[in-house]
Amino acid sequence: ISYASTAPELSDPGRYEFFSRVVPPDSYQAQAMVAVVRALGWSYVSTLASEGNYGESGVEAFVQSSREAGGLCIAQSIKIPREPKPGEFAKVIGRLMETSTARGVVLFANEDDIRHVLEAATLANLSGHFSWVGSDSWGAKMAPVQGLEEAAHGAITILPKRASVPG
């Protein structure tokens, strides 16, 4: 029983017959993110993923959901290396600017990568240029945006509904 794993492949009963989770798989938040992007009237977005199962499968689910929903074009899908070299995040921002009209960016990235992307956007004097839609790894956390509020201004993040259980 997992209290935190959102990996969609764990939902395969053929491979994981006795697996159960208490949070929804990433495919659900990808569908929600497509709904948010469509509600905002965006038709051209980029995706940004941390290398690894969470980021890559999250973006894959987003792309699949966007295909099913229709009317959404993915400008480019960028992957952040697991161990980024110095200057890697400046390159990521540079790549996003190659399709600068795709100002909406969907992120399935870990906290540290989100923070570094926002730092790189700030250093490139692009605070406010991008509109971010972040997955639950960003959610309601303050750490990725602390001191970088201007770069993150207007971001929409996804977080599964939570409730406290008394006792």
UniProtKB/TrEMBL annotation:
Residues 1-166 form the Receptor ligand binding region domain. The keyword tRNA processing does not apply. Pfam families: ANF_receptor. It is a multi-pass membrane protein. The keyword Amino-acid biosynthesis does not apply. GO terms for cellular component: membrane. Its main location: membrane. InterPro entries: ANF_lig-bd_rcpt, GPCR_3, GPCR_3_mtglu_rcpt, mGluR, Peripla_BP_I. It is found in: Membrane. It comes from the Eukaryota. One of its GO terms (molecular function) is G protein-coupled receptor activity. Keywords: Disulfide bond, Glycoprotein, Membrane, Receptor, Transmembrane, Transmembrane helix. Transmembrane segments: none annotated. Belongs to the G-protein coupled receptor 3 family. This is GRM6 protein. It comes from Drymodes brunneopygia.
